[in-house]
Amino acid sequence: MTTSLHPGRASANGTKPASHTAISPAPRRQRSRPAAIGAALCAVVGMLGFIGIWAASSDRQPVLAVSRPVKAGEVITADDLAIASIAEDGALKPMPASARASAVGKTAAVDLSPGALLLEGQLGGASPVGDGEAVVAVEVPLAAAPIDSLHNGDRVQIIKTAKGGDPKEELGEVISEGRVLRVAPGSTSTGSSVVSLAVPQDRAATVAGASAAQRAALVVLPQGAN
């Protein structure tokens, strides 16, 4: 606000009238037009960024990923798969998480590496386990099987080894025959291996019991042996 003083004129009798004070309004400050435009642009950019982040997060979808190494020809188990969440991408065609049940039990058409997304083209046929067979995982100590000579499709005898300190028990008993489906590393401390075998269904419990007691050994049979 500014104040302006204006002197009055003299009256007829020679006396000066009382002075009057005139109050003038202060000029209004005008807002900078470029600053207003900049503020509006910042608000728009911030809103667009928020919308982009929200859209990206809402477009994520659960898909199948590989959690353990699987060699070509080996049977895929539930433990070999994990669920990953990725943004939708037309260039990628991973299998959806809902297809997990259909992937388990099939063979890998190629080597699968941990962390990779599972593609439908990487799956082979169904498991080679036939009617009347069951799959048993047998943990075999380093000296209880020729691990380096085991291959998928090999036929083996499963031997229940003698319990240490029991002289009445036979040194070894053939409890079943089976077919090798997969060989994977076992305990790193003992150097054991885990061999997935297709065995007759009525012998599966016996084989599993021998493995749990760490009393299972494998003997590779020659090709064409009955």
The rough form would be described as: elongated
The secondary-structure class comes to alpha+beta
The main sheet comes to: 5 strands, antiparallel
Low-pLDDT windows of residues: 1-6
The largest sheet has its strands arranged as 7-10-9-8-11
Spatial separation of the terminal alpha carbons: 113 Å
Q: How many helices?
A: 3
Instruction: Indicate the radius of gyration in whole angstroms.
Output: 41 Å
Proportion of strand residues: 25-35%
Q: How much helical structure, as a percent, in the residues?
A: 10-25%
Query: Total number of β-strand segments?
Result: 11
- What is the overall pLDDT average? 78
Q: What is the element string, with H for helices and E for strands?
A: EEHEEHEEEEEEHE
Any overview of this molecule?
Residues 1-6 have low confidence and may be disordered. The chain is α+β, with helices and mostly antiparallel strands and 226 residues long. Among the domains are: 60-126, Type Iii Antifreeze Protein Isoform Hplc 12 (Alpha-Beta Complex), CATH 3.90.1210.10; 133-220, no CATH class. The longest helix has 26 residues, at 33-58. A hairpin with a 7-residue loop joins strand 9 and strand 10 (193-200). The protein starts with a strand and ends in a 6-residue tail after the last strand. A five-stranded antiparallel β-sheet has the order 7-10-9-8-11. The protein has a two-stranded antiparallel sheet with strand order 1-2. It is 17% helix and 32% strand. The chain is elongated.
